[in-house]
Design goal:
The chain is elongated, with a radius of gyration of 24 Å. Helix 11 links the parallel strand 25 and strand 26. It is α+β, with helices and mostly antiparallel strands. The chain has two domains: about 200 residues, no CATH class; about 260 residues, Alpha-Beta Barrel (TIM Barrel), CATH 3.20.20. It comes from Gossypium raimondii.
Length: about 475
């Protein structure tokens, strides 16, 4: 049984597992009803509804405002697309994945108006008393759900494991339905329920955001792209200081790592790619910084008769010269680099190049240069049981040279690589656990920013420690 929220934080202590059998949401005949109002019609007979067992700690007689939706099918499969009812003439707003990595807002009034890879839907309230209704696709076991348009205004739920080796026929909690009179409170309360139900993530009120949230920050990406170098970073910070906007955070983005193409000798570091997408087929060669930062010599140390070199010397000089800079973060991809790790390189964990496979839903998202590049060249994937070695290698070095945290990019990649690793949920769970453990060890448990992460797999599995994420494309 999932843990009670009363044991984790007073901020999320409004629910306990009370085995409540009442709900404001019901399935009557072939209609889904919320507080006496129909919101989905023609619900198929194979759809199941289970009232949420989580009730108020203050008054357990209050009916639950949520229910879990599932279904039964005849055949076990790794992917199911099942209608849960027809939506007609009820305004909604939603969030859907328009790219593999990113979501955006979408509105409509009918089931046919939905987009593929929809992550959540809020149905509008009515003057006659219908409340706001949240439809939230979830993860269940090794499966992950999303919503999409069906035929004749049906709302379809797509449930997929990502691996033909992981199949099932029956589900009981692939969509959570929650009602409320305030859409903001509605979502917050629903997430408390799912926090208890899944037990795989933490809410913001349970976590401590990193100190960078109160700082003005500067990221090097738009200034340098992959040609970032110590002198440029120094001049950029100085320009901000001289202009009256001293940064408290400096984020050294892509361009500091040692990377190469597969056909290059492992002694060659090809970091100065300048053409869009040129770096994406590259793989990580080593955990340490490339020669641009490795060859930095501290002028301060020379003045004192010594020679301090490398990333550590640069970070030390930067913070000493510009005393407003309290935090320096650096970029890396979830799999190490865009193309993962290069196989058979001394000092790196075992790696296998995997060809990404896009799900039918992802194939309907907008064309993306990054996806095209990595599909063509594959990803050097560290096996999930060794993911801790990947992050320990990167993060221990970064901590040693004075880096305070990381921006982890290219996050929603694992779902394309999971065929032989137990499916998308199991592979993601292993990587996020390894990442979380490493952040706790090296960056005070919260020194991390997520990017290219807009999918419910990440939200439900990857946010035990992560508080911050890039919100838009």
């Amino acid at each position: 049984m999932a843990p009670s929220l009363t044991k984790v934080s007073s901020g999320v202590s409004g629910l306990v597992d009370g085995h409540n059998n009442q709900s404001l949401i019901s399935l009557e005949g072939s209609n889904f009803i919320a507080n006496g109002h129909v919101f989905l019609t023609d619900v198929p007979a194979n759809i199941t509804v289970t009232p949420s067992p989580y009730v108020s700690t203050t008054d357990k007689s209050i009916p639950s405002v949520g229910s879990f939706v599932g279904f039964d099918t005849v055949e076990s499969n790794s992917r199911h697309v099942v209608p849960i009812g027809k939506l007609k003439n009820i305004k909604f707003m939603s969030i859907f994945r328009f790219k593999v990595w990113w979501t955006t807002h979408w509105v409509g009034s009918n089931g046919s108006d939905l987009e593929n890879e929809t992550q959540m839907v809020i149905l509008d309230r009515s003057d006659s008393g219908r409340p706001y209704i949240l439809l939230l696709p979830l993860i269940e076991g090794p499966f992950r759900a999303s919503l999409q348009p069906g035929t004749d205004n049906n709302v379809d739920v797509c449930v997929e494991s990502g691996s033909t080796k992981v199949a099932a026929a029956s589900f009981r909690s692939v969509v959570y339905v929650h009602v409320g009179e305030d859409p903001f409170i509605l979502v917050k309360d629903a997430m408390k329920v799912i926090r208890t139900h899944l037990g795989t993530f933490k809410l913001l009120e349970e976590k401590t955001p990193p100190g960078i949230v109160d700082k003005f920050g500067w990221c090097t990406w738009d200034a340098f792209y992959l040609t970032v170098h110590p002198q440029g970073v120094w001049e950029g910070v100085k320009g901000l200081v001289d202009g009256g906007c001293p940064p408290g955070l400096v984020l050294i983005d892509d361009g500091w790592q040692s990377i190469s193409h597969d056909e290059d000798p492992i002694t060659k570091e090809g970091m100065n790619c300048a053409v869009a997408g040129e770096q994406m087929p590259c793989r990580l060669l080593k955990f340490q910084e490339n020669y641009k930062f490795r060859d930095y010599v501290s002028p301060r140390s020379l003045a004192n008769g010594s020679t301090n070199m490398g990333m550590g010397a640069f970070i030390k000089d930067l913070k000493e010269e510009f005393n407003t800079v309290d935090f320096v973060y650096v970029w890396h991809a979830l799999c190490g680099y865009w193309g993962g790790l290069r196989p058979n390189v001394p000092g790196l964990p075992e790696t296998k190049v995997i060809k990404p496979e896009l799900s039918p839903g992802l194939k309907k998202t907008m064309e993306d240069l990054a996806v095209d590049k990595i599909v063509n060249t594959g990803i050097g994937l560290v096996p999930p049981e060794m993911a801790d070695q990947l992050y320990e290698g990167i993060h221990s070095h970064l901590e040693n040279v004075g880096i305070d945290g990381v921006k982890v990019d290219v996050i929603h990649l694992l779902e394309m690589l999971c065929e032989n690793y137990g499916g998308r949920v199991d592979l993601a769970r292993a990587y996020y656990k390894a990442l979380t453990d490493s952040v706790k060890k090296h960056f005070k448990g919260n020194g991390v920013i997520a990017s290219m992460e807009h999918c419910n797999d990440f939200m439900f599995l990857g946010t035990e420690a992560i508080c911050l994420g890039r919100v838009g494309k």
